Amino acid sequence: MADDTFIISRLYKGDEDAFRYIFDNEYGLMCSFANRMLHDRAMAESIADDVIFNLWKSHERLNITSSLRSYLLGAVRNRCINELKSRIKRLSATNASLNIREEMEMLDVIFTDGSQPLGTLLEQELEEQISQCISLLSKECRQVFEKSRFEGLSYKEIASELNISTNTVKYHIKQALSFLHSNLDGYLKWIVIAMLIR
Description:
198 residues; mainly alpha; Arc Repressor Mutant, subunit A; 11 helices; disordered C terminus
């Protein structure tokens, strides 16, 4: 069984050997293709399974006009796109439910999560927007924010280095986050998406 026309003709008739051939020869590629789109191996396998199952369930109504592989990968691609749209919709709904305090806490996490540097969390455009916002902070506020979020210094260390009180450091951090929140409002849902779908 190596000829598409023959395999497709056997699929129409519900030939189990034809389905076994597809599973043996195309399933791995389908999973790999889906995983490249979704970065989620379990979901990729689930989608490949669904495509194979649907092929079996509706074999009498199949309309394959391209090569068998193109048909299968096209079906996988369509399901992956639907899954990505669903993810964005869910994340947008999550973002819509966030109140201002939660959004500010989320921004704070972005700048303090050492396990995921800013560059891996955000796309280039978002990084540029944040950098631009930071540059608009007052000199002292910017110094405090950068030392805390980018240099990893504690409030006490910043206070000692800049010869200011710890409360002043806390004040500047709060002001910086508030300013970022106000100026990045339109980008917050994309920040959430960037954080969660990578």
